[in-house]
Structure formats: C-alpha cells, structure tokens
Amino acid sequence: MSALSAPEIQILPATAADYEEILAISEGIYTGLDYLPLRYHAWLKDPQRRMFVAKSEGKVVAFDSFLLVDGGITAVLQGLRVGLTMRGRGVAGIIQKFTLDTLHSDHPDVIRIRLTRMKDPPPAILDKYQPLHSKAVIAKYLSADELEKELMVLESRISSERQHFSPPVFLDYSEVHGLFSGPLKEEDLLPGRFLIQAWLPIITCKANLDLMQHWRVRWLCSYPCDAVHKKADGSMSKEDNISVSGTGPSFVAFKGFLSLGTPMFPMPSGDGKHRLDIDLFGTDLPCAKIHVLLQLKEAVKALPSGGSIICIIYAEESLRDGLTGLLDGFPPFLWCREQVVLELVIKDRTST
C-alpha cells in the first residue's frame, strides 16, 4: 500500500468523545497490557499533558501525546499507536511530526525530549535519540487461585536474607521530598538521576515529585544504615553502613535500595487480570528480593476478590538472574525483556 498523503489525515486535540475509537485502534496492543484505557480520562485533565488524534474520513486512526516534566524543560512522548488497518502507511510519522511541531511552537522552554522503548529500538529512532539507560524487564503471572500460596513461596525463599537488613519502610510524601538529602544518594541508586517510573523517565526535581504524589505511587526505601556484618564465628552483628552483598565472603558498604510500586489497574481484557509495575533502584540482590515481596503484598491489599496479577519488574541487568530465580516456577508473561530510555537534546540551555 502506498503512504497516505498529509491532506488525507486531520490532526486534532484528543477529547473525551474520542475514547471509544481510541480503544478500538488499541485492541491487542502491548500484549494486552495497555495502560491507556484506564488513564485516558485522567490524562485529559492533566494540564502538563497534550494529546492528539489523527482522523481519516472522520474516524480516529492514530493517537499520540506528550507530558511536560522536569519543571517544564523536558517533554516525554507517550502512548503512540496507529490502528491496525493504517499501519505501514505513514500515519505514525504524520502524527509524530504534528506532535513535535506543536511542542516546539507552544513550549519553547523545552530543551530535550525523552521516550522509552522496548529492546532494540528501530534505526530511525536511534539516528535521532541517544540511549541513556536500559533496565531488565521480568514479567510473571500470579493467578487468583494460587496467589496466597505463591506469596508464601516467596516468603520462604527470602526468609534467610531478611535478617540481614533493617525492614524497608513505605514513605509518605513528606519523606519523599527529603529522600536524597540524607544518607541515601541519587548517584548510588539512580543512573543519571533518572527515576524510570512505569516507563516514564523523569529526574527527582520537586516538580516531578509533586506530579507523582497524584499518581499514588508507593515508595519503599531501605536506608544505608543499621545493616549487619558476619562475625568470624558465622553469627551476625549490626554495624552501621555495612551490609552483606550477595552470599560470598566479601562485604561492601550497603548504599541503600529504593522501589516504586504503581497502583494496580485492570487489563482491558476484562478477565480479572490486573497489572502491577515495580521499579527497582539499586544493585543489592537480597534487598531487591525483599522489595519485590513487600510491594506485592501491599498491592494485594487492593486486589478485588478473584483478581489475578501480571507483575512486571524493572531492575538493573545485574539483578535479572537473581530475580528470575526468586520467581522460578511462576508462569511467565511473555512481553519484553528490556526497557530502553532515549533522549533527544533540542536546545542547549547554556547558550540561550
């Protein structure tokens, strides 16, 4: 099929009336893990976000959006999709160009654009965008019938490791704002100062933390103190700022650990499946395992009766094998293996 010409496509601001048509073009996207159906109406109300639809013959054929973050100097592109019958006909390029043109003209303070993609972004993207960071993705299915048993299995698999750490604590937002002003350091946990929260790459500035407060993200923190050290006789004793790293004889200073749990939301399939995203920050495997368990247990409290969970964990690549082992025997959910953050610098702020 030949590419559609621009006059055949009309780009308009997305409205509440477009919702059903956007659902129709999104069917089956992201292997059934699409977040947009639940978030669409909230996105419409977000003053930091712009949303667009492409229409052909009066019908919605594509969608795109961007969110202003980092205090208004960065835009994150999100939600791009094209209807099945229009794919491969140039529609994505048309709506993306309109989105970027609008961004440049209406938001001149924006100096960079970010986006996240699955493994191996196409060359057309890599020609423009610089990879910033990547994380391993591990997706597992926890069925409603087996959920209680599966949590008990996880408990048993990390019971010996939990004694090595002070219990992680869930934070309220008064604590979140001061999180990195104490012993916890951004440079130790967040490569490039990035919080990649459910595919949204943002820095830890106050404006972003204020935005996240509305999203009800669960912050779980292990501080770099009150850890334990193994004595010569094999027993454990507490010593400030020392922790076991792995199971070998060597010991290194424990730099802390952080995880973010996104509130679960039902899948568009309507069969009781709920998606849970857990973003992990840090490289200590025993601590990562504890955080996964605690985030899961907290999420289950809000799970409707008879509901099941598709749990998606994002972690540093060095943790992949260990976390996969923790979840050994849990049915995999086939999705993607890697999350890649890309950035395009469009203006040097120091030269303006």
TrEMBL record:
<dbReference type="InterPro" id="IPR000182">
    <property type="entry name" value="GNAT_dom"/>
</dbReference>
<dbReference type="GO" id="GO:0016747">
    <property type="term" value="F:acyltransferase activity, transferring groups other than amino-acyl groups"/>
</dbReference>
<dbReference type="InterPro" id="IPR056483">
    <property type="entry name" value="Hisat_C"/>
</dbReference>
<feature type="domain" description="N-acetyltransferase">
    <location>
        <begin position="9"/>
        <end position="152"/>
    </location>
</feature>
<dbReference type="Pfam" id="PF24066">
    <property type="entry name" value="Hisat_C"/>
</dbReference>
<dbReference type="InterPro" id="IPR016181">
    <property type="entry name" value="Acyl_CoA_acyltransferase"/>
</dbReference>
<dbReference type="Pfam" id="PF00583">
    <property type="entry name" value="Acetyltransf_1"/>
</dbReference>
<protein>
    <recommendedName>
        <fullName>N-acetyltransferase domain-containing protein</fullName>
    </recommendedName>
</protein>
